[in-house]
């Protein structure tokens, strides 16, 4: 899909539906598209291997389908209560995708997840976003 730089946000939420944006029976994440940003929010409460792979695939496809890379990749883990190795792997892979395309990765996450990232010295890969309101501002 191609989205020009227009002042509109697309909401690709597929939670609870039988057909999704990717024609899969279930979507592991909400994805919102802004003119200069992509926001991805895993549905939680955890992230398993299949969900992580599906989310990375959705984000990679969106990067591929745009003429120009968005300025920001926004990752919202506020619904993820379990800081699992799959969730951390997802964060690393999304940061890599963003870096490859020149987008700045931003993260909004519960304090517990942020503490784990700090312990693993991975918190420097993302610009931290402290509130949902700021996340919404960055999507515009």
Structure summarized in a few sentences:
The protein is of the alpha/beta class and 140 residues long.
Please describe what this structure looks like.
The protein contains 4 helices and 6 strands. α1 (49-65) runs parallel beside α2 (85-100). It is an alpha/beta fold and 140 residues long. It has a single domain (10-139), classed as Transcription Regulator spoIIAA (2-Layer Sandwich), CATH 3.30.750. It has helices at 49-65, 85-100, 111-119, 132-139; strands spanning 10-11, 29-34, 37-42, 72-76, 104-108, 127-128.
Number of strands: 6
Give the averaged pLDDT, no decimals: 84
Strand order of the largest sheet: 1-2-3-4-5-6
Q: Please tell me the total number of domains.
A: 1
Low-pLDDT residue intervals, each spanning 5 or more residues: 1-23
CATH superfamily: STAS domain
**How many helix segments?**
4
Taking the sheet with the most strands, its summary is: 6 strands, mixed
Helix-strand pattern: EEEHEHEHEH
Give the termini separation. 19 Å
Text of the CATH class:
Alpha Beta
- Shape descriptor: globular
């Amino acid at each position: 899909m191609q989205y020009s730089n227009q002042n509109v946000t697309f909401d690709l939420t597929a939670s609870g539906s039988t057909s999704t944006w990717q024609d899969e029976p279930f979507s592991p994440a909400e994805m919102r598209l802004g003119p200069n940003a992509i926001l991805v929010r895993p549905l939680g409460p955890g992230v398993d291997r299949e969900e992580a792979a599906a989310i990375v695939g959705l984000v990679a496809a969106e990067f591929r389908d745009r003429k120009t890379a968005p300025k920001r990749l926004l990752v919202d883990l506020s619904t993820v209560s379990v800081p699992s190795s799959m969730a951390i792997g997802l964060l690393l892979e999304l940061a890599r995708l963003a870096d490859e395309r020149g987008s700045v990765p931003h993260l909004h996450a519960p304090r517990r997840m942020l503490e784990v990232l700090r312990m693993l010295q991975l918190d420097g890969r993302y610009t931290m976003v402290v509130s949902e309101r700021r996340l919404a501002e960055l999507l515009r």
